[in-house]
Amino acid sequence: MRISFKHKFIFVSKPKCGSTTIRAALDPFSDIGLTEIKDPATPWDYHMTAKQIKAALGERNIDWNDFFSFVSIRNPWAMLVSNYRYAKFDKEGRGFWDPDYQGESEFPFDSFVQQVFDNRDLGVDNTVTVFAFDNVQLVSRIMMLEHFDVALKEIFNIIGIPYTNPTKRNVSSKGSKTTIQQWFSAKTRRMVEQQYAHDIEIGGYTFAGGYRSFQKSF
Question: Is the pLDDT reported for residue 167 higher than 80?
């Protein structure tokens, strides 16, 4: 999550959708950034939803609608594999950030998908519905990670800050010889289709890796 009062932007940081790279690119222009997020006296957090940010601003008499807001999304099957690799789960399904973490183990991928489906472990429902909507779409723009450079450049132009191709962060090569599709059983594939139906619809995502062509607005 990043907020600029000068440039009037809000970035809603949906996990494992290029958010670390985007936050770093926005840092020089942000008033609410890493320092404020790390301060326990503030309400800010890395992965607040649009609804949560809007409420926190409202408590300070700041109008959400005065800002250009955006969120990034990604093929949900690819996103879950990325999340699984990143978390380095122990045998009990705890990610490395958990204080009871026991070290990387062979926690089954199917069990991880079940945890996501049950909204356990990761602490958030990582769908575009939760991050960008409250009955209606709250954000000004939904950006597809698959169009990263062209989409982010357009957004930077809209909010009036200079764009240089940012260094991609948290990009993992672990398991790169395994295709995304090979991670999923028929059951977990259907679970993702159900849980992330809204993401799939917006992005035109397919299990085979297809996605919608670039559009300027969602």
Answer: no
